[in-house]
UniProtKB/TrEMBL annotation, chain B:
<feature type="transmembrane region" description="Helical">
    <location>
        <begin position="96"/>
        <end position="123"/>
    </location>
</feature>
<dbReference type="InterPro" id="IPR052730">
    <property type="entry name" value="Sugar_ABC_transporter"/>
</dbReference>
<dbReference type="InterPro" id="IPR035906">
    <property type="entry name" value="MetI-like_sf"/>
</dbReference>
<feature type="transmembrane region" description="Helical">
    <location>
        <begin position="12"/>
        <end position="36"/>
    </location>
</feature>
<dbReference type="Pfam" id="PF00528">
    <property type="entry name" value="BPD_transp_1"/>
</dbReference>
<protein>
    <submittedName>
        <fullName>Sugar ABC transporter permease</fullName>
    </submittedName>
</protein>
<keyword id="KW-0812">Transmembrane</keyword>
<feature type="transmembrane region" description="Helical">
    <location>
        <begin position="149"/>
        <end position="175"/>
    </location>
</feature>
<dbReference type="InterPro" id="IPR000515">
    <property type="entry name" value="MetI-like"/>
</dbReference>
<keyword id="KW-0472">Membrane</keyword>
<comment type="similarity">
    <text>Belongs to the binding-protein-dependent transport system permease family.</text>
</comment>
<feature type="transmembrane region" description="Helical">
    <location>
        <begin position="196"/>
        <end position="218"/>
    </location>
</feature>
<keyword id="KW-1133">Transmembrane helix</keyword>
<feature type="transmembrane region" description="Helical">
    <location>
        <begin position="259"/>
        <end position="280"/>
    </location>
</feature>
<dbReference type="GO" id="GO:0005886">
    <property type="term" value="C:plasma membrane"/>
</dbReference>
<feature type="domain" description="ABC transmembrane type-1">
    <location>
        <begin position="66"/>
        <end position="277"/>
    </location>
</feature>
<feature type="transmembrane region" description="Helical">
    <location>
        <begin position="70"/>
        <end position="89"/>
    </location>
</feature>
Length: 297, 290
């Protein structure tokens, strides 16, 4: 069984992994217990069952959800999705979320790139302390910051704007981006920088033309993580918005109010929030682990 | 890599510094301000000194929340770390199935946290949820809104569901970086499966596992959204963790002084524990010659 999995089609076609794959051509399977496939199947089942249940519910009518218990929708309906995609107060939630998430990703990367370069290449006064201080912001509980953020952004007139949420999420995304990028940049030999400077490249041109393409995968991973952590966060984005920039996560609490819970619509909204993540995950699948390790594998 | 000394590198760090100062230092100073002042409304503040800190330290409320929080973090670390390693050891090493596993395993990590709460809220309901319905039909009484044990189990299983993949992915990345020569040497020495794990795989995973534990500790210690959606901190206060309690106090009751004192102590506890992890981690990095 294990042999078939390892030789399945698609092996070795993963981009960017070619050299590593060749280097590890020697079989290592003999150390794996035979139950591996069973273990993975059980684990994946455990992961997917609740998600399946959500999808299942999103395709049912409310009468069926509350009426008879069924493992799959008998009376398949897309009405729940139709409701979300046609009602502006629903779909604007997604638009708002996407706007501040993209803003946050761009800001985070723009400031993190030079900083990560400095940390990976130079020693300077207080660099280690600064690095740890950055990390402490990743550790800061959003609950601590919710109220001060609310007051700060209200006082400068940014309350209920996309940029407010984007800036607030920088609190934990910038340190994260610096960490991930620094990890990737460490892997690029310093000789490349030196050669480029000798060849007459200025810092800006070298950084954009030579260095950034070299760590393209790192930038991709950092962008992915900024996107992800901004997308999944609720406490700050809910506190800092009321109407105009209300994220989808906060909109979802609406279903609770009028005439009991609208389970079908709630489930459909939940399914739609999974879609962007599932899409981007496909592109970075081979770097996910490295990104989570903050570039330190 | 040996780095050169260059004080001008500060200019490269400056943008980050300004941005983080705006979004972290200013708000944090507000919190410090509130923690030492008292107010009777109308924006009139009076110096209160360390009164709020003394109040909070003397009240059961914070200690109880801290106790629940530490218990929660300890339980999920004790489950997720071994389980994550176990899953990583069983993952296909490469090929199509490895990609499938990676993508499917990452899926829970990318679901907005309130949706994670919603998923489990629905999943555990006796009337419409698969889990609750099945347990009910098996004759096991299960009601996470009423029963303390059920509420805790639900929150813990939810967190295991949500985050075990993170530990597994990190451990997997660590395993991938082990050269085959190590395994061949072990084969020649006729090392047992356990010894391969104990003396080759575990030491090589140590670095990434530290990151996994650090991230899991930090994030579990700040957990807010998921239990809030599922149990709302109940039944009673059974699942009111530090963040939930803090938000209740700060935004719900608007007790600014106590909430601020609470915030600062909360942050300091996280900082202290994370600093220990961080020191261990950087020492591991040095040992490996990174």
């Amino acid at each position: 069984m294990t042999d078939t999995t390892a030789k399945a089609p698609g092996a070795g076609t993963i981009p960017g992994k070619v050299t590593e794959t060749q280097a590890r051509a020697v079989p290592r399977r003999r150390f794996r217990p035979n139950g591996s496939a069973v273990v993975m199947a059980i684990y994946l089942l455990f992961l997917l069952l609740p998600i399946y249940w959500l999808i299942n519910m999103s395709l049912k009518t409310n009468i069926e959800i509350l009426g008879d218990f069924s493992l799959w929708p008998r009376d398949l309906t897309l009405a729940n999705y139709a409701k979300i995609l046609t009602d502006p107060s629903w779909y604007m939630g997604y638009v708002n979320s996407l706007i501040y998430v993209v803003m946050n990703t761009v800001i985070s990367l723009a400031v993190a790139l030079p900083a990560a370069y400095a940390f990976s290449r130079y020693t300077f006064l207080g660099d280690k302390h600064l690095f740890f201080w950055l990390l402490t912001n990743r550790m800061a509980p959003p609950a601590v910051f919710a109220l001060p953020f609310f007051q700060l952004y209200s006082s400068v007139g940014l309350f209920d704007t996309h940029i407010a949420v984007a800036l607030a999420h920088c609190l934990f995304n910038v340190p994260l981006a610096v960490w991930i990028l620094e990890g990737f940049m460490r892997g690029v030999p310093k000789e490349i920088d030196e050669t480029a400077y000798i060849d007459g490249y200025g810092f800006g041109r070298f950084f954009i033309r030579i260095f950034m393409p070299l760590i393209a995968s790192g930038i991709g991973v950092a962008a992915f993580f900024c996107f992800m952590f901004s997308w999944v966060e609720l406490l700050l984005s809910r506190t800092l918005t009321s109407v105009d920039a209300k994220p989808i996560a906060a909109t979802m609490t609406r279903t609770v109010s009028a005439s009991g819970l609208d389970w079908g619509v709630l489930a459909a909204a939940g399914v739609l929030t999974i879609v962007p993540g599932a899409l981007v995950i496909y592109f970075v699948r081979n770097y996910i682990a490295k990104g989570f390790a903050l570039g330190r594998v | 890599m040996n780095k050169t000394v260059n004080q001008k590198a500060w200019f490269l760090v400056l943008p980050v510094l300004v941005l983080v100062a705006f979004s972290a230092v200013i708000p944090l100073m507000t919190v410090v301000n509130y923690s030492v002042q008292d107010t009777f409304g109308n924006n009139q503040f009076f110096w209160a000194g360390l009164e709020w800190f003394e109040d909070m330290l003397a009240s059961d409320r914070m200690w109880n929340a801290l106790g629940r929080q530490l218990m929660f973090s300890a339980i999920i670390l004790a489950i997720e770390v071994p389980l994550g390693i176990f899953v990583a050891l069983n993952m296909p090493k490469k090929g199509f199935w490895a990609s499938v596993c990676l993508v499917l395993m990452s899926l829970p990590l990318l679901i907005p946290w309130n949706v994670v709460g919603t998923i489990w809220q629905i999943f555990g309901r006796v009337d419409i949820g698969l889990l609750g319905y099945t347990l009910d039909k098996l004759g096991i009484s299960y009601n996470y809104t009423q029963d303390l044990v059920a509420a805790w189990i639900t929150v813990i299983v939810m967190d295991v569901w949500h985050w075990t993949s993170l530990v597994a992915l990190l451990a997997y990345a660590g395993l991938q970086s082990i050269p085959d020569a190590y395994y061949q040497a072990a084969k020649i020495d006729q090392a047992s499966r356990w010894k391969v794990f104990r003396f080759i795989e575990l030491p090589k995973m140590a670095g990434v596992l530290m990151i996994a534990i650090l991230l899991r500790f930090m994030d579990s210690f700040m957990i807010y959204t998921e239990p809030f959606v599922v149990t709302g901190g109940g039944p009673g206060n059974a699942t009111t963790f530090l963040s939930i309690d803090l938000v209740k106090m700060a935004l719900g009751q608007f007790d600014l002084g106590p909430a601020a004192a609470f915030s600062i102590m909360y942050f300091l506890v996280i900082l202290l524990i994370s600093w220990v992890f961080y020191t261990v981690m950087t020492n591991l990095d040095k040992r490996d010659g990174l």
